Amino acid sequence: MSSPRDDHEAAAADIRAVEEANTAFYEALERGDLDALSALWLPGEDLTVSCVHPGWPVLSGRGEVLRSYALIMANTEYIQFFLTDVQVAMTGDTALVTCTENILSGGPAQEGDALGPLVGQLVVATNVFRNTPEGWKLWSHHGSPVLTETGEEEDEEPTS
């Protein structure tokens, strides 16, 4: 029988491992490393993975999900993620990570430029991981754009 201290230490180690897997996911995207990214997703098609990129329909199945990342990487010259509000919740062999992706990205450069124009975007993301013999693997990623308000409406006088 394990002691409460042992259980707490094991849970803390699992949370650290999930945080590391989550960070590795974003680092692989930043490097454009499809092989590393592929290794982070659950293998095989028996447990269907899913992904929702902001503004995209649901993608199901490992092949479809990984093709989407290959397409994104092929059309993105530069991308960097600054993660904030990272929260990890766990139950059994499943972990849920929520975070805000503060994204800075640039598309293909214009003629003569080293880099295309940079664009900032906020996305809230949910990443679901499963614990496997090979470590924590992504089961699902869902990103939704954050629609910010300018506050201008609050400053205007009512018209009625």
> Which value, in Å, is the CA radius of gyration?
19 Å
CATH architecture: Roll
Structural class: alpha+beta
CATH top level assignment = Alpha Beta
The shape, in one word, is globular
Low-confidence stretches: none
Strand content: 35-45%
Region (Disordered): 140-160
Protein name: DUF4440 domain-containing protein
InterPro entries: NTF2-like_dom_sf (IPR032710), SnoaL-like (IPR037401)
Biased composition (Acidic residues): 150-160
Describe it:
- By secondary structure, this protein is of the alpha+beta class.
- The protein has four helices and six strands; from the N terminus they run ααββαββββα.
- It has helices at residues 4-31, 34-40, 62-74, 152-155, and strands at 50-52, 59-60, 78-91, 94-106, 118-132, 135-145.
- It has a six-stranded mixed sheet.
- Helix 1 (4-31) runs antiparallel to helix 2 (34-40).
- The radius of gyration is 19 Å and the shape is globular.
Task: Produce a short descriptive summary.
The chain has 160 residues and is an alpha+beta fold. The chain contains four helices and six strands; from the N terminus they run H-H-E-E-H-E-E-E-E-H. The chain has one domain (4-144): Nuclear Transport Factor 2, Chain: A, CATH 3.10.450.50.
What are the defining features of this structure?
single chain, 160 residues, alpha+beta, Nuclear Transport Factor 2, Chain: A, six-stranded mixed sheet, 4 helices, 32% helix, 36% strand, globular, SnoaL-like, DUF4440 domain-containing protein, NTF2-like_dom_sf
